[in-house]
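#lab-general

N.A. 3:47 PM
ok so I finally got the sequence cleaned up, no stray characters, all 259 residues accounted for. can someone with queue access submit it? mine expired

B.Y. 3:52 PM
send it over

N.A. 3:53 PM
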Amino acid sequence: MTQDERRIYLIKELTRENPQYRQTEIPFDAQGPRRLLRALFNVRMPKQVSDNFIEIQNAYLQEETRKKGITDIADLTPLQDGIYLWQGDITTLRCGAIVNAANSQMLGCFCPNHGCIDNAIHTYAGVQLRAACAGLMERQGHEEKTGGAKITKAFNLPCDYVLHTVGPIVRGRLTAKDKERLSSCYRSCLELAEQNGIKSVAFCCISTGEFHFPNDRAAEIAVQTVKEYKEQTHSEIEVVFNVFKDIDLQIYKELLRAD
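B.Y. 4:20 PM
back already:
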C-alpha cells in the first residue's frame, strides 16, 4: 500500500468505529487528510483494534517519521560530559527514552491537532500508547501525581521507551512548591530510566508552554537537577535537553556553557 492508501484506510476505519464521525468527508487538499487522520487518532478512546489496523497504522506512522528524518543520539555532540542540547522534533529522536509532558490522566491529549508534545508523542507512537497508558492508570486506580513518572514502550517512535511525567501547573506567582515538583519530574524520570536499564534520556521542556512555568527558571531547575543526580549517584546515563523554540535553545546554551 502507498502512504495515501494507508491514510485513507485508517481514516475509514476510525470513522467507522465511531458513529458520530461516520459522515465525515475526507478532504481533497494536500494536508487535509493528514490533519483529519491525526484528529481521529487524538480523539479515539483506548480500546481494542484489529491486527490489520495495527499493521497498516504501524507502517504508516513509521514511514511518516522516516520522511521527517530520524536523528540518532550517537550523532550528537555533547556540550558537557554526558549532556547534550538538541533542537528538533522529539518524536524523531532515536535514544533510550524520551520524556512526555503528560497530564494527570496520563492518556494523552484529546484536543484534535493540538500543538503540545503530549499530542505529538501519542500521535506518532500510535493507538497502542494510549491503550498502554490506560492499562497503567486502571491498575493504579487514581490520577498520576505531579512530579512522578511512568514508563511505557514507545511503539512506533524511534526511541525505545517513553517516560511520562506530570509537571506542575503554575497559577500566578511561581512558588517553592512549583520548583520542587518540577525538580521531582526530572529526578523521577532519571530514577525510572536507571531502574529499567535505559542508557539515554531526552527531556522536553517540562511544564513550560501550556503549564505556564517560566522558561528560564524551568531550564535552570532542569540542568541543576540532572547535574546533581549524576553527581550524587555517579550515573553514566546520557541526557539530552530537547528544545523546540529558539528562546529555549538560547537559555540552555547559556546555562550549559556557563560552567
